Amino acid sequence: MKKTLKAGTLFICGLMAAVSCDDFVNVDPLYTRSADNFFRTPTDYQQALTGAYDPMQTSYLDLWIGEIASDNSIAGGEGVTDTEGLHQIDAMTHGGVNNELRSLWRWMYAGVTRTNYIFENRDKLEFDDKARIMGEASFLRGYYYFELVKFFGAVPLIVDRQLPPGEVSSQVRTPATEVYAQIEKDLQAAADALEWTTPVKGRITKGAALALLGKAYLYQNKFTEAATVLDQVINEGGYDLFNNFETMFRVVNEGSKETVFDIEYVGVEGGSYGCFVCLEGFAAVGFHGIRGYDGPVYADGNSYNLPTKDLYDAFESGDPRRDASILDIEAFIAAQEEPGKIKYVTGAGGHTGYYNKKYLKRSDELGLGDNDLTSPVNHKVIRFADVLLMAAEAHNRKPSANDNLALQYLNRVRTRPSVGMAALNLTGTALTEAIYRERRVELAGEGLRFFDLVRTGKAAEEIDGFEAGKHEVFPIPQDEIDLAGADWQQNPKY
Amino acid sequence: MKAKLLAILLMLSLVGYGQSPVRGRVTDENDQPLPGVNVLIKGTTLGTVTDASGEFRIDNVPADATLQISFIGYTSQELAVNGQSNVAVKLLPDVTSLDEVVVIGYGTTTVKELTGSVAVVNGNDLTALNPVRVEQALQGQAAGVQISAASGSPGAGLNIRIRGFTTNGDNTPLILVDDVPYDEDGLAALNPSDIETINVLKDGTAGIYGVRAANGVILITTKKGKKNAKPTIDFSGYYGVQQTTKRMDLLDAHEYAVLKNETYASGGGTPPFANPNLGKGTDWQDEVFEDAPIQNYNITISGGSEKSRYAIGGSYMNQQGIVGGDKSGYRRYNARVNFTVDILPKLTWENVLLYTNERRDMLPEMGIGSVLFNTINANPAASPWKEDGSYAFLEDVSEVINPLAQMANTFNRNTVNKVVGKQEINYKINDNFEVTGRAGYNYALVDEKQFNPLVYYGANKAQNTAANAALEPNLTKVSDDLSIPVYNNIRETRTTYFNYNFEAFLNYNRTFGVHKIKATLGTSMLGYDNRSLTGTGYNVPYNSNDFADISATESNNYLNNTSSWQDRTRLLSQFVRAEYGYGSKYMLSASVRRDGSTAFGANNRFGYFPAVSGAWVLSEESFFQTSAIQFMKLRASYGVSGNDKIRPNGFLSLLDGEGVYPFDNILANGVAIGRIGNPDLKWETTRQANFGVDLNILQDKVSITADYYVKTTKDLLFQPDISAIVGAYGAGSSTPIINGGTVRNRGLELRIDYHTQLAENLRVNIGYNITTIHNEVIALPPGVDFFEFGSFSVGGGTATRMQVGHPMGYFLGYETDGIYQTQAEIDERGVTQDPATTSPGDLRFVDQDGSKTIDFSGDTDKTRIGSPIPDAIMGLNVGMNFKGIDFSATFYASVGNEILRNYERQLPMSNMLTYNRGRWTGPGSTDEYPRLTTEATRNNVLSDFYIEDGSFVRLKNVQLGYTLPRAIVNRIGASRLRIYVAANNLLTFTKYKGFDPDFSNYDPNVSGIDYGFYPQAKSIMGGLNLTF
């Protein structure tokens, strides 16, 4: 009996030992980098940063909505249910259920999260190049939040950490002023950390940070601050206007001196309609393509985002920028050698006869795979011309206006070679209006018009269906309000 | 003390009465020898086992001793020796053996004392059905166990579902063969004739297996041999011919031409056939289906000495496919060595070792692109061959290719080499304590080889890999100025699946008067280490499978690529169980298991799984005195178990997102979080209550077991949408897996066994079982109304849903209400049904929401139009023995399930089922089948027109055997010879139009969608069983 007890005791001890052997199941997965097990080398930081750049490559939505919501273009496409969200925005009938707005919300927060992942781990390692990496990360966060605040107004502000799913319901919509404060802080930090030039094409520079900061100030009507930083870009950045307005947007002229901030795209990787956020090409260009097109120069696309006659007519007579910015398809065909052989069709989503020529699919700029999705054309988000016009507006509208400088900037844009419009000589509100007009024609088709109209208070008079007090911001996607479960109030009147 | 007294008494008796050897022979009801029967001198541990001739000899038997003769499946007998030296014993089968051993996990009990719900199936009953895989035979044998084929192709797996669908994830039960875990696929390695018994733990008492037990537990024990038995050689074999169980009713060329002409004319087009008198044309099913052989041979040598027992065997199985012959064939070699030795008087060592070599060839199956899809939809007016003897192109149906060419061009072979074994030591410390330690392993090496030759099936076929009929390669652009040819390729994958387990447990067993106590305490460690490496090489010489190996390809081809994966999961467990019995009247059992798994998040790495059960044997009560009932027991159990088959590392945030951005115009690979982690992620939890009754009536001729179960599984795993502000929607990112959602299964199981002797030599036994399944989704994650699954037709949207208040995977679509006969009917109905696409002859849909408009863009007019889950499944086994002749039949039925017919491709020129003969042709012609037209209609939307009753009854096996008289058999030196003819799946009764109603898909949410299933074969076999 004693022996039995002894054996039993031994056995149970063995079991107890096993209990403390819980380490058996506390093992890491093999050959797998997990999020908590990263940031061990400078390369890790660089790779996380590359991952944070990636969501910018969804900028086709920013470009489209900025145009289609405005008086510049219509949605187009195969029919009114083809990317229905754009048609609703075109008609100003958009509401809380809108796939495009929801995608934008999702992707910009993906960008925010990827930058926050870097900030969350900023103290894990010190190394030489870290300031630059953190500077670029700061810029990216500033960019993503600027998109969010520009579209939606007050949005939840999450900074320097990844938000655990369990904390979503306690997130409030941070007032736009506070979001802007964070944007300013991030962009200033980026500007402080970065150089004017980078040896690597595509990396964010000090100029990009300051120009976006200037834009953020402008969107808040902080003209004095805007003027200061934009002057810095103009005077110290080494930028200049490109000598050919029309070819500036071609792939071969990427990275010219006029490029302040562009989002890089390449055509070497195929793409799939199942995952727009995965694309490496600029979807806007392929979709702008002429529907059913068979002919020279251009290539077949989906006829999205078609410029209006209103925009076409907004150019002063003789302004070469009209024909450089807008393709009049019939005129183009008529001018070809064998017009009868050129074919194209119109979609039931609308037809104006015009196409967005700055970002139009060309037969010599096709990506691999489905080339509607894989255009290698970069998205020029901030050009030097935009910086000059923003600076002009800031100097003109700031409390201690400097119309001379404003006019000088404006005329530099107007009179440059390849545009060659007559210099203006105006002051005060006349100058303001001239700058606004100049912005429209200079930057036509680049996704800025709607937001310019909103921030200058002109949206209601220029956009059919625009309701003041409502359409200045887009509605928060209703599903996101529901999923957050945090009692967010929808934007007014939606 | 008692034992000592007994020994003294025994010695006294030996001295007093003298001893002598006793010889005897044990036979069964047919006078056939019964080997392996236990013969014991009552009150002692002295005894032996009968040999292959059913004979035994025990020395030194007291003249007044009583022999106890017992054998599983037979009624035990006692025989007073009375000084005889030669005895003859005839055992009669006992289907209601209350002393039959039931394995309950880390211990055993008897049918009589069982408190849980366990189905026991005798291996011999399965072997008799000639299955290729053991699960095939298990179908219909055990109440509560639903088994359906995942494919009828040889070597394909089956879906085993115990008591309904418990999860939207992996419903496969835990399968242990000699305590070694097998996955369902791996069961193919097992030779069914090696199996001694199968025990299926169905209720909460399976909780002794904790976090792996929620889907039930299947415990398979292989044959081990018997002590003190002369070597017995068993040889069995059969050879048979298989055919498809069914051919679809398709149009012949003449009918096809007539109907296509009508189709085009109705749409305003030109009829394609100027002369529709094309005769029968090509019967593509004739071309594709073939009679295929199946053969299987086993040899087993078993026996034992006083201290050891062994079973050694080998088998060969070869099944060719009814589609493609050896292109979908399966072949298995199998060798087993089981032996058990008493190393020391109290120390036993058991060794189990299985080696299997399997080879399986596969054709494209299921859905668009499969051989049978092409067969069904091919134009019957087209010839399979061109005049020069090469395969014809079927160019008039864009998605259909010549199935004969497709089979010829398919080279897809899997080879499995597998070693499974166990080393177990059992030490009997004393009468009360016994300790067991074991190590098990299961190592499988799976080699897949797929040769993709350059092929061309005609213009614009998606399956073309060559640019043209001359088989020139396509070009692909690798950079802006370089294009390279895409040659044929060979892909080879080697995957090793390895699991190992260490278990130790202590069993305690003691009886104090009427109190009987048993206890079990143990620990278990289980690990899985799986890894895989794949390589693809381009340009196999001569475009020929003879050279299809990576070693023969271009080593520097730009397109060559490799990939690999690995996963490691581990499970650590402790468990304890206590059982108490009061007399034979009351039994109580309780267990708890603690499981920890690497699959769970840090916050929930360990779980506890308790179970309690009890039984009351009413028939033992003094007040219960009725001659009508011989045995009656009430049982109840409640237990908690888990399902750990969740994605490995699901709780972690892995850096497998996509973070690619071009710098200097070159794509840089960054890093991003993929799926967001969830440190709270844990197992799915199943709580099950079971109430049962066991009844023996009519002098034990009838035994009845009935159970009612309610099984609720919560914490189902989903990846629902979450707020985007956590950042889960970047490239390659996804939302966290969360626990949320509940499904409930409840139902009744009934098993009735009847056996009787009708005449001197005529014995009949009938077994019937029925299981009802009521499956209902109880909850989904907050904010989620439903999840959608499956697909209907091409681009036709989803087909099924998981939604609260409905069974899993129910079909959502439009309800039809006949056919519009006239334009007036359409106009005057008062319900608008898209006028642009509705004409007389079209399906008339029901306005579910009363909006007076049929909504084709939203879901408001869709409703539940069927469920893939049967109301009931049934099995019926009938056996008869008359002298040496045996007859048996096994039926299986599934009742009340629906199937979505999803193998028709409604292209203008694709062939059709013959129900289209009855299409609408004018007012009053039919109210069932819509008109044929190329016009746009809504007839192709998912509606109940495509839902069919999937109920069926199938004669799974029928067999007639004859056991030759002993006198004849002895002349060839054998002890037993039985010859038989048998047929599997001979008859199927169903209204279902498709090939085979007995199928299911692995994913419970699409289990009822028939994408063009490879039917199971009907086979006619002849075989023999020979014992030396």
From TrEMBL, chain A:
Glycosyltransferase is among the record's keywords: no
Cellular location(s): Cell outer membrane
CDD domains found in the cross-reference section: SusD
Keywords in alphabetical order: Cell outer membrane, Membrane, Signal
Record domain RagB/SusD: where: 303-467
Parts of the chain that traverse the membrane: none
Signal sequence annotation: 1-21
Occurrences of domain SusD-like N-terminal (ranges): 46-218
GO CC, one annotated term: cell outer membrane
InterPro entries tied to this protein: SusD-like_N (IPR033985), SusD_RagB_dom (IPR012944), TPR-like_helical_dom_sf (IPR011990)
Family, as annotated: Belongs to the SusD family.
Record's protein name: RagB/SusD family nutrient uptake outer membrane protein
Organism of origin: Dawidia soli
Lineage: Bacteria, Pseudomonadati, Bacteroidota, Cytophagia, Cytophagales
TrEMBL record, chain B:
Signal peptide coordinates: 1-18
Alphabetical keyword list: Cell outer membrane, Membrane, Receptor, Signal, TonB box, Transmembrane, Transmembrane beta strand, Transport
Membrane topology classification: Multi-pass membrane protein
Subcellular location: Cell outer membrane
Keyword Signal: yes
InterPro entries: Beta-barrel_TonB (IPR000531), Beta-barrel_TonB_sf (IPR036942), CarboxyPept-like_regulatory (IPR008969), Plug_dom (IPR012910), Plug_dom_sf (IPR037066), TonB-dep_OMP_SusC/RagA (IPR023996), TonB-dep_OMP_SusC/RagA_CS (IPR023997), TonB-dep_rcpt-like (IPR039426)
GO molecular function list: siderophore uptake transmembrane transporter activity
GO BP terms, alphabetized: siderophore transmembrane transport
Domain TonB-dependent receptor plug residues, every copy: 111-217
Entry keyword Signal: yes
Entries under PROSITE patterns matching the protein: TONB_DEPENDENT_REC_3
TonB-dependent receptor-like beta-barrel domain sequence ranges: 424-986
Listed GO CC annotations: cell outer membrane
NCBIfam families to which the protein is assigned, alphabetical: OMP_RagA_SusC, SusC_RagA_signa
Family of the protein in this entry: Belongs to the TonB-dependent receptor family.
Listed name of the protein: TonB-dependent receptor
Annotated organism of origin: Dawidia soli
Phylogenetic placement of the source organism: Bacteria, Pseudomonadati, Bacteroidota, Cytophagia, Cytophagales
